[in-house]
UniProtKB/TrEMBL annotation:
Family annotation (Pfam families): EAL, GGDEF, PAS_8, PAS_9
Database matches in InterPro entries: Biofilm_reg_signaling, EAL_dom, EAL_sf, GGDEF_dom, Nucleotide_cyclase, PAC, PAS, PAS-assoc_C
Ranges where the PAC domain occurs: 127-177, 372-423
Gene3D superfamilies listed in its UniProt record: 3.30.70.270, EAL domain (3.20.20.450), PAS domain (3.30.450.20)
Species this protein is from: Solilutibacter tolerans
Residue ranges of every copy of the PAS domain listed in the record: 55-108, 171-212
PROSITE patterns to which the protein is assigned, alphabetical: EAL (PS50883), GGDEF (PS50887), PAC (PS50113), PAS (PS50112)
Domain EAL: 593-847
Domain GGDEF: 452-584
Ranges for region Disordered: 1-32
Protein name: PAS domain S-box-containing protein/diguanylate cyclase (GGDEF) domain-containing protein
Length: 853
């Protein structure tokens, strides 16, 4: 056991503990069960100890039986164990080697010698190398070392087997083969500097021809040797002589060699290794290895120039000696020419907290091994502030883990571009105000503050679309720019202004005093109300403003904006050029709309919809000639919903497309049922929403409904609002032609209320018009209403279109329409909207036949 390494852990129980357990097992006062249990445990323990000792003896016997030196080495090069053959060969006691670095027996190993060993072992391979070992008396001898991975003391270590090459006859042959096989130049010189061997690569690099005397060529005055800075070197300063005189390796020295007789110049990277005599222990040979780095040196010089031009440099910090190294390029970027050797001096180049950020990033890089990149500000020697990007990471090639390397680059111009792009990304390109994303960010930042009391003003121009359509988009854009200027003038430094899009704007203001948001709203209305003059045109516009306050009307950005939008629409509904605060009533109406929306989505699936039919009557005879299908909705929670409310809501949400398709199918099926009952003369009119008209394949939907019911197109009439008249003319003509090909009757509902596009009316293949009840209310006494009714009737007659009057409520209106030549009417004078059964009953017994003339 005395031969075990000092760090080995022994698990065998000690004698004192065994003695104490023996006493407990023999103690008559202990319970028998306890004595038996202790005796069994002691026996097992002793058996384990015996097995452990036997295994240890086998290990030591096998280890020491190997005739060649065998070492167990840790990954950092520490010797953990060595067999007897190794101790004899090196002439040392165990205590002189175990726990010591491998360089104790191999002082000539180059720096990083373990890197290829670890690389080969990491791939599951072994590693073989020829090196020089040293005995305790200082004499050296060559060995061939085979290294492999081994499980030692529960962890992976390196096992190295060395074979003495001193007595091998072919060592010189193998040595010569080796140096001839490499591409690097190799020159072997004896203790006096005479050339013993030179390989072909060296002759090629030095420009020697076959048959040249290498001895004469290398020692003649034909060579001028300079260091990497161009300073000539004397013979005593040449690397082989330095290695012979010091007994130390010269590693990777850059030399310039100039051959005077041929004017050839090359840069070489030279490493010289001294070889020691096995008896004297003194260098009796040197091995010079070199390669041509002329291109690399040239590239390095060019790189230094590129660094200067590209305003980039490199830096390195060694935590072990607390030293910072900066390239000339890095000093140029920082605008420093003096000494910056310490980390504090390096960090002090940066402004304020940026210096602390850099120091913290460097500490963190050592802690977690992650790279960092920081944008920092520095004040250059001329006093100008510039932006610098500092990047750094641990040098993975440094086994000590102490070196941090990185770059320093001037990014001032890039920062300027980024700031410009950032401003552009936050700015509305037309007006120069903040855009939607920017104002949303500002609002969220306000709300995250300590005192998020603020107001949101949602501003929408009144009648802007008319100006844009009539005067053109160029005038419209210039108007928006003028409005933005007036908005700034009204708000000043009291808030932030943004354009959300179109003619909608937003203002944020902190509630620094009571009613400041009301003052701003009235100032905005006053500014915008003043006439505008653009391109010789003078006109006036107004604005409607909705106002919300935080936290009263919401605590998040989207809620505040949406509620301000709702308040704006409420203000516009009441009157133009006004403002409206968000109220509990508005909140209730919003909740009602949400509830209607939720319930409406299940209306079809829950069979909550129905169609009623209002008779269309021949105004002269009183006979029912058709019907208009009107949708009704009865919800279990909301009750009977007013048509104007739920139809308008369905229009705004797009649900009207599904509802309208259902109405078409249901109306056609009802006509089918009536025909099956023998009522073949009834034509049903169904309203088609503007959204349905824009939806895909309206003609296909109608054709499918007719086909499913098995009725001809002539049994169906479709009523469109005037809004379809201003849609894309080719598409409108195509859709109307498709419907007319199906035999469907086409009419324009509420004619005269909206656009009244007579040019479109002349082009479209429609069959009739419906006179709005809005104009029928004042007849026959209101001259304006009478004039409109006469005009619509004249248009229909001149174009050969049918005409149906809506909202006929009294006999005077009926007589006026008859005298005007209007053939058909509908309204409460005849009947309200009826269920299918009640409608058929009215159809069989027309109550107004007595009015026939």
């Amino acid at each position: 056991m005395k031969d075990r390494p000092a760090h080995a852990t022994t698990h065998v129980p000690n004698g004192e503990l065994q003695s104490e357990l023996g006493k407990l097992a023999a103690d008559p006062d202990s319970p028998p069960e306890t004595r038996q249990l202790i005796a069994k445990a002691l026996a097992a323990w002793q058996e384990t100890a015996a097995a452990y000792d036997a295994a240890e003896r086998r290990y030591r016997g096998l280890f020491d039986a190997v005739p060649d030196p065998v070492s167990i080495i840790d990954w950092d090069g520490t010797v953990l164990d060595m067999n007897s053959a190794g101790l004899r060969l090196f002439g040392r006691d165990r205590d002189m080697l175990v726990g010591k670095p491998i360089e104790t027996i191999n002082p000539d190993l180059p720096r990083g010698h373990l890197i290829p060993v670890l690389d080969a072992l990491g791939r599951g391979e072994s590693y073989v190398i020829e090196v020089t070992n040293m005995r305790a008396d200082g004499t050296r001898f060559p060995v061939e070392v085979h290294s492999a991975s081994i499980d030692y003391e529960g962890a992976q270590r390196i096992v190295a087997v060395a074979r003495d090459l001193s007595s091998r006859a072919d060592v010189e042959r193998r040595y010569a083969e080796l140096i001839e096989s490499v591409d690097n130049g190799i020159v072997v010189q004896d203790g006096e500097g005479r050339v013993v061997h030179i390989n072909s690569a060296a002759m090629r690099i030095l420009g020697l021809m076959p048959g040249d005397s290498s001895e004469a060529a290398l020692t003649s005055g034909r060579w001028l040797v300079v260091d990497e800075h161009g300073r000539p070197l004397s013979p005593s300063q040449l690397p082989p002589q330095v290695a012979r005189s010091t007994g130390k390796m010269v590693e990777s020295q850059i030399l310039g060699v100039f051959r005077t007789d041929t004017d050839q110049f090359a840069w070489l990277s030279v490493t010289v290794i001294p070889k020691f005599h096995p008896q004297s222990g003194k260098p009796d040979q040197t091995l010079s290895l070199f390669n041509d780095v002329t291109a690399l040196k040239r590239d390095s010089a060019m790189f230094q120039r590129v660094q200067s031009l590209a305003t980039i440099g490199a830096w390195e910090f060694n935590q072990g000696n607390a030293h910072v190294y900066l390239t000339d390029g890095a000093r140029g970027v920082l605008g420093r020419s003096g000494n910056l050797d310490s980390l504090d001096m390096f960090c002090d180049c940066f402004v304020g907290t940026d210096a602390l950020r850099l120091a913290a990033a460097i500490d963190k890089a050592y802690d977690d091994g992650r790279a960092f990149s920081l944008d920092l500000r520095t004040i250059q020697s001329a006093g100008a502030e510039c932006w610098v990007r500092v990047q750094g990471e641990l040098d993975r090639k440094d086994p000590s883990g102490q070196c941090l390397t990185g770059t320093v680059s001037d990014i001032s111009e890039r920062k300027l571009v980024e700031d410009t792009l950032r401003k552009q990304a936050r700015t509305d390109p037309l007006t120069g105000l903040l855009n939607r994303d920017a104002i949303l960010d500002e609002l969220q930042a306000y709300l995250a503050g300590a005192s998020p009391k603020l107001a949101v003003l949602y501003i929408d121009l009144d009648r802007f679309k008319i100006i844009n359509d009539v005067l053109g988009h160029n005038v419209g854009d210039r108007l928006l720019c003028a409005v933005a200027e007036r908005l700034w003038a009204a708000v000043g430094n009291r808030g932030l202004c943004a354009r959300l899009g179109g003619d909608e704007f937003l203002v944020l203001c902190r509630l620094t005093k009571p009613d400041i948001h009301i003052e701003i709203a009235e100032a905005i209305l006053s500014e915008i109300a003043r006439p505008f003059r653009i391109e010789q045109e003078e006109f006036s516009v107004s604005a409607s403003i909705g106002i919300t306050e935080s936290p009263r009307d919401g605590c998040d950005a989207l809620a505040l904006i949406q509620n301000a939008d709702a308040a704006m629409y409420d203000s516009k509904r009441r009157a133009y050029n006004g403002w409206q605060s968000y109220t509990d009533d508005l909140a209730r109406r919003q909740r009602d709309r949400l509830q209607v929306d939720f319930q409406m989505r299940g209306a079809l699936d829950n069979n909550e919809l129905s169609l009623l039919y209002q008779p269309q009557v021949d105004l002269r005879t009183g006979l029912v000639v058709g019907a208009e299908a009107l949708m009704r909705w009865h919800n279990s929670q909301l009750g009977v919903m007013r048509p104007d409310i739920f139809i308008s809501h369905a229009e705004s949400t797009g649900e009207i497309i599904r509802l309208g398709a259902w109405a078409l199918r249901e109306a056609c099926m009802q006509v089918r049922r009536w025909r099956d009952e023998g009522h073949n003369t009834v034509r049903v009119a169904v309203n088609v929403s503007y959204r349905q008209f824009l939806a895909d394949d309206l003609a296909g939907t109608v054709e499918a409904a007719l086909s499913a019911a098995g009725i001809p197109g002539t049994a169906l009439e479709l009523e469109f609002t005037e809004r379809v008249l201003i849609e894309d003319e080719p598409d409108t003509l195509r859709i109307f032609a498709q419907l007319r090909d199906l035999g469907v009757m086409l009419s324009i509902d509420d004619f005269g209320e909206g656009y009244s596009g007579l040019n479109y009316l002349r082009r479209l293949p429609i069959h009739g018009l419906k006179l709005s009840q809005l104009f029928l209310q004042g007849v026959p006494t209101n001259t304006s209403d009478v004039a409109v009714c006469q005009a619509v009737s004249g248009i229909a007659r001149s174009l050969g279109l049918g005409l149906v009057a809506e909202g006929v409520e009294n006999e005077a209106q009926r007589r006026f329409l008859v005298d005007l030549g209007v053939p058909v009417g509908q309204g409460y004078l005849f009947a309200p909207a009826l269920s299918p059964d009640d409608f058929i009953q009215l159809l069989n017994t027309p109550p107004y036949a007595k009015h026939g003339t």
